Amino acid sequence: MQRRALALIAGISALALVSACSRAGGSDTPAPAAADQGPATEVHLGYFPNVTHAAALIGLEKGFFAKELGATKLSTQQYNAGPDEVGALLGKSLDAAFIGSGPAINAFAKSEGQGVRLVAGATSGGAQLVVRNGINSAADLKGKTIATPQLANTQDIALKKWLAANDLKAGDGPTDVKVTNADNATTLDLFKKGSIDAAWAPAPWSSRLVIEGGAKVLLDERSQWPDGKFPTTVLIVRTEFLQQHPATVQALIKGELDAVDWASSNKADAEAAVNAQLKKLTGKALAQNVIDDSWGQISLTTDPLAARFPQLAKDQVTAGVAKSAPEVKGFADLTLLNKVLQAAGKPAADAAGLDQK
């Protein structure tokens, strides 16, 4: 009996030691990869009702996703800005999301590099700083109020970086720039009422502020990036879902590529498809001059422009939304994207080292 009791104690101690060693590894010890379970029964996809999410909207409207997914059910959910979508991803109510580059980085950082992977791009460009008449320079914004869609979203970070670069401070002082957060539709109403003076907004809201609200463009964000290219919208996927259902993720990417290719050859029809989706989602289609102006701001691409992400991570520090730049190595997994591109006879997308830890 004594030997049996001692053996039991030793076994419990050994198990405790193994458990302690596992916990001690913390975030430095990656979770084992989940096994491939074949195509998913259902995939939950998030996106925004914005022209910057045109690839997603076209994929839905023209049935490109449904065609590639086959028997897999596609369930969708729309969002106003990235931080809420990040919460849904990390809470596992979403499997994949079209999302801004800033919140995409935050999702990776919040999950300690484990929760999500960047699998494709979607849109380059499509964001502007628009202001009311009388504001002609950065200095004219002192004491003024600027709206962004949500705290720490892609446009919020871009604005605060630009303010810092122009020696302007975001705050409530008399010479500060007050930054307020409001959903895009509310921003348009606030601007028309005179409650805000400017907005850093994505298309089509920047276009609507100009055409419907009487604003003017002070800055197009493309002017802040080499060759005018920066990832406004990308596609990220929960790491576990990617591991368990790579065929489903590949089908999503193929559907997106089909949408992008179709749009490049059918501009008018692509605009109409986006507008049809926006009417379904918001109850109102865009005026043709608004969608034309918005379309001129964007480029659809499955290339995530991975080389921009280290700078985007640093921008979060400059913008004051992070104390240190989030690590982005290991964020990208372009394996499935490049399989799809190779099958289509297209050049591979460059992960720019983000696929290595």
From TrEMBL:
It is found in: Cell inner membrane; Periplasm. PANTHER family: ALIPHATIC SULFONATES-BINDING PROTEIN-RELATED, TAURINE-BINDING PERIPLASMIC PROTEIN. One of its GO terms (cellular component) is plasma membrane. It holds the Pfam family NMT1_2. It comes from Kutzneria kofuensis. Belongs to the bacterial solute-binding protein SsuA/TauA family. This is NitT/TauT family transport system substrate-binding protein. GO terms for molecular function: ATPase-coupled transmembrane transporter activity. Keywords: Cell inner membrane, Cell membrane, Membrane, Signal, Transport. Residues 1-24 form the signal peptide.
